[in-house]
């Protein structure tokens, strides 16, 4: 079900995070996630560079959506070509905290340590994270991954689950 927002509701910001050196499969997944976020009337937010970030931005833009890139450097021109708004922060990886703080939820796709930090920030803020082949985070002493991360098998499941949690 692809329920859009009512007209009087501000579009939620939804993070899409993942590796800057993605595989073709991760790119396909990220583009689908970006598209689904846009179709629901939300704004996609990413780190603004390559890999999963570019693919999610492309998917959202091609679906008629808005994409904000919070860039690590001081130059707005560093951002990928699919960003609607390119915001240079000059903060390097510390921008990951801004992404988490600004967004109501996140879809993590694959990823490196930057993605792991974004997941950690979201969990710390009590915000939902849907994971597609991304990090498994264990609390100290726990034998199972953190139950606040939903392990999705595909983009539709990830966005649907996230949407339900964000609008609760």
Detail the topology: elements first, then pairings.
Layout: E1 13-18, H1 24-39, E2 43-46, H2 52-62, E3 67-71, E4 85-88, H3 95-102, E5 105-109, H4 113-124, E6 129-132, E7 149-151, H5 155-166
Parallel strand pairs: 1-2, 1-5, 2-3, 3-4, 5-6, 6-7
Helix pairs in contact: 1-2, 1-5, 3-4
Number of helices: 5
Radius of gyration, in Å, reads: 14 Å
Portion of residues within helices: 25-40%
As residue ranges, the low-confidence spans are none
Number of strands: 7
Structural class: alpha/beta
Order of helices and strands: EHEHEEHEHEEH
Strand order of the largest sheet: 4-3-2-1-5-6-7
Main beta sheet: strand number and arrangement?
7 strands, parallel
Principal-axes shape call: globular
Q: What is the residue-mean pLDDT, rounded to a whole number?
A: 93
**End-to-end distance:** 16 Å
CATH C-level of the domain at 18-112 and 124-135: Alpha Beta
CATH fold-type name of the domain at 18-112 and 124-135? Rossmann fold
Percentage of β-strand residues: 15-25%
Oligomeric status of the shown chains? single chain
Task: Please state the second-level CATH architecture of the domain at 18-112 and 124-135.
Answer: 3-Layer(aba) Sandwich
């Amino acid at each position: 079900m692809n329920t859009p927002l009512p007209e009087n509701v501000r579009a939620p910001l939804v993070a899409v995070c993942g590796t800057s050196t993605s595989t073709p499969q991760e790119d396909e997944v990220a583009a689908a996630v970006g598209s689904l976020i846009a179709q629901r009337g939300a704004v996609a937010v990413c780190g603004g560079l390559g890999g999963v970030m570019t693919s999610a931005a492309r998917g959202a833009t091609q679906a008629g959506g808005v994409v904000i890139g919070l860039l690590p450097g001081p130059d707005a021109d560093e951002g990928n070509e699919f960003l609607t708004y390119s915001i240079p922060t000059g903060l390097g990886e510390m921008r990951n905290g801004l992404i988490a703080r600004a967004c109501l939820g996140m879809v993590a796709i694959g990823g490196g340590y930057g993605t792991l930090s974004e997941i950690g920030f979201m969990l710390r803020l009590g915000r939902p994270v849907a994971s597609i082949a991304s990090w498994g985070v264990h609390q100290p002493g726990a034998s199972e991954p953190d139950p606040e991360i939903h392990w999705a098998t595909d983009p539709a499941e990830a966005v649907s689950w996230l949407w339900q949690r964000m609008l609760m």
